[in-house]
Amino acid sequence: MKTVIFAAIAAATISAPAFAQDAAPFTGPRAEVLAGYDSLKTNSNGLGSPDGFLYGFGLGYDVQAGGAVAGVEAEISDSTTKRNFVSTAINTDRDLYVGARAGFVIGDRALGYVKAGYTNARFETQGIGGENLDGYRLGAGLEYKLGGNLYAKGEYRYSNYEADIERHQVMGGVGLRF
């Protein structure tokens, strides 16, 4: 009888790590809220480098295979970044992003990743109207599993738009993986 109990305990102990590996913690759909710092750099149009507060919402889907993770994501964000002139003001408006990310698992709770994709931002000029500018986004970040399906992330991203406008953002987020 002792042999059977010992064998059952040993089998459970040996197979527990295998169960943990089967449940890939970075697989599945996810939703997140985002907030951070937003800075524009205008190289030729005299707007200077206004900055402000970034906020938004993102959705994504990731697949983990061993220590590698790949996924797709979409985001909508806005910013308080604004430049006032004597007779007018220029405001950043919504920013849409669709792209992909790839990364690697660090330990059993963290994910380091890089991302790239298409972005479209709207800029409003008081009294004149708005203009949509297309561009690309590159970034890198770290996602950390807090417990259950909850995670936190930090990320730097660079966007380059038409009209010689660049955007640098440092942001954090909290999300839920389903």
Question: How would you describe the overall organization of this protein?
Answer:
The protein has one helix at 2-22, and strands at residues 28-42, 51-65, 68-79, 82-84, 89-106, 110-125, 129-147, 150-161, 165-177. With 178 residues, the chain is mainly beta. A hairpin with a 4-residue loop joins strand 4 (82-84) and strand 5. The longest helix is centred in the first third of the chain and has 21 residues, at 2-22. It is elongated and about 55 Å long. It starts with a helix and ends with a strand. Residues 1-22 have low confidence and may be disordered.
Oligomer: single chain
Q: Poorly predicted ranges (pLDDT <50, ≥5 residues)?
A: 1-22
Structural class: mainly beta
How are helices and strands ordered from N to C? HEEEEEEEEE
Shape annotation: elongated
**Biggest β-sheet, characterized?**
8 strands, antiparallel, barrel
Strand order of the largest sheet: 1-2-3-5-6-7-8-9
The total count of helices amounts to: 1
What would the keywords be for this entry?
mainly beta; disordered N terminus; elongated; 12% helix; eight-stranded antiparallel β-barrel; 178 residues; 1 helix
